[in-house]
Specification:
Helix content is 50%, strand content 11%. By secondary structure, the chain is mainly α. The chain is elongated, with a radius of gyration of 20 Å. It starts with a helix and ends with a strand.
């Protein structure tokens, strides 16, 4: 493999490790403890400054109930079911009070985490959406928000400069537009 191709492959593997961490809800310190791979080694793998060997891929993947080739093969989709692996659930239970291990906990997720980490990356908000449309999308993915809570989260993201908003006539579920002016949100 040419040097440039190897660097691109290492970078892509680093992204897959970050994806594992994101799906599992683990920070670097957490995945290091969970997999028993040092945080400095993982950091080097994530940044592409170190190559992921078959042995390390096996150790990392096996922690999540996967096989090493599944991590090394860029065409293999990392399943979200790893979030429910027995080893990971035990890890959450055993280290629930070590907050620096977790980007979010299984039972007390930060209200905005789904919107920031998943919904914005899905291009759902590439066009303006009404709160009821966003709420329906969140509900379809298993995240329940009240309209007030969702409005607060979206307004916060507007103030952070992550998304944009403007007032428009409300779109009714029937597809018609009402007279009341409400916020719409998009990226």
């Amino acid at each position: 493999m040419a040097r440039n191709e190897n660097a691109e492959y290492s970078k892509a593997l680093g992204e897959r490790i970050k994806m594992l961490m994101e799906i599992a809800g683990l920070e670097l310190a957490g995945i290091a403890e969970f997999t028993k791979i040092s945080d400095s080694h993982l950091y080097s793998l994530i940044n592409g400054t170190r190559n992921l060997t078959g042995k390390t891929a096996e150790k990392l993947a096996n922690s999540f109930g996967l096989e090493g080739w599944m991590l090394l093969n860029l065409n293999h989709k990392i399943p979200h079911s790893i979030r429910k692996s027995t080893k990971l659930l035990e890890f959450y239970a055993n280290f629930k009070n070590v907050h620096e291990y977790f980007s979010e906990t299984l039972d007390t997720r930060k209200a905005s985490s789904f919107i920031e980490k998943k919904l914005l990356k899905s291009n759902f908000l590439s066009v303006p959406k009404f709160i009821w449309e966003i709420n329906a999308e969140c509900s379809s993915k298993g995240y329940a928000y009240s309209s007030k809570q969702l409005s607060q989260i979206l307004t916060y993201l507007v103030h952070k400069g992550v998304i944009k908003s403007e007032k428009r006539r409300i779109k009714l579920r029937s597809g018609e537009f009402g007279k009341r002016m409400v916020d719409v949100f998009w990226e």
